[in-house]
């Protein structure tokens, strides 16, 4: 387990802390006389988790530690973090539920595509639209978290959320295009090859069965060596 993958796992462990800090309104944390309410604590946790996303990708590229498990686990950690934050914001009434359903549904759909692609030996890497979508999500969630204390930021937060919806739909279309262009064609070729192998095996099995029937018939009714004259005399 290298450091970039450890940071990815740490981001996953941040998720329950974020939900607890945001939903529990009575949370208060004192640090050197400074009192952090639940909204500020949730914002600090969220930004710390988002920072690990930037750090693990940077370290993985710099140290040449890009692994298959890291490539698959990193987007899952991002989706868990963003989904937990958005669902918690719905709970406190800071964002419409339909927006969150659309965004989270998109995350599940893309995760399904990644899983199918991984099973076929192909990794769908994050696109530029996907990275832009992640940045817009962090900005939108941060603004909405601040709007819990400063209501004047609610309108800018909703504008950012509309941007998240647009980027989510565009990046989802990009992932589906990559999937159908590479993975779906590969699956069709593999299934066509499997079908040809199956047909060849079925024909060979039928040929062996007919040969076995002929041998059985020859054993049961052997030919008369004397010929027809001997049998009539």
What would your notes on this structure say?
It is a single chain. This protein has 233 residues and is mainly alpha-helical. It has one domain: CDP-alcohol phosphotransferase transmembrane (TM) domain (Four Helix Bundle (Hemerythrin (Met), subunit A), Up-down Bundle). The chain contains seven helices and two strands, in the order αββαααααα. The protein has a two-stranded antiparallel sheet with strand order 1-2. The longest helix is centred in the C-terminal third of the chain and has 67 residues. The model has no long low-confidence stretch (mean pLDDT 81).
CATH architecture: Up-down Bundle
State the CATH topology. Four Helix Bundle (Hemerythrin (Met), subunit A)
Strand content is under 5%
Helix content: over 70%
Instruction: Please report the first level of CATH classification, the CATH class.
Output: Mainly Alpha
Total beta strand runs: 2
Tags for this entry?
single chain; 233 residues; mainly alpha; Four Helix Bundle (Hemerythrin (Met), subunit A); two-stranded antiparallel ribbon; 7 helices; 2 strands; elongated
């Amino acid at each position: 387990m290298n450091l970039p993958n450890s940071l990815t796992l740490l981001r996953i462990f941040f998720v329950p802390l974020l939900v607890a800090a945001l939903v529990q309104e009575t949370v208060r944390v004192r640090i050197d006389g400074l009192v952090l309410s639940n909204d500020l604590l949730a914002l600090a946790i969220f930004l710390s988790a988002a920072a690990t996303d930037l750090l693990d990708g940077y370290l993985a590229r710099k140290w040449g530690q890009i692994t298959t498990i890291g490539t698959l686990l990193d987007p899952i950690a991002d989706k868990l973090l963003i989904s937990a934050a958005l669902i918690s914001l719905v709970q406190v009434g800071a964002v419409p539920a339909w927006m969150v359903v659309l965004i989270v549904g998109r995350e599940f759909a893309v995760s399904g595509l990644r899983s199918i692609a991984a099973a076929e030996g192909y990794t769908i890497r994050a696109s530029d639209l996907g990275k832009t979508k992640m940045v817009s999500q962090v900005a939108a969630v941060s603004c909405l978290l601040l709007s819990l204390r400063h209501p004047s930021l609610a309108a800018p937060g909703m504008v950012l959320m509309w941007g998240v919806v647009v980027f989510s739909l565009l990046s989802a279309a990009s992932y589906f295009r990559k999937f159908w262009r590479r993975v779906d064609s590969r699956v069709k070729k593999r299934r066509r090859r499997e079908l040809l192998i199956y047909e060849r095996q079925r024909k060979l099995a039928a040929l062996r069965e007919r040969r076995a029937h002929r041998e059985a018939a020859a054993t049961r009714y052997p030919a008369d060596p004397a010929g027809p004259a001997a049998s009539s005399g």
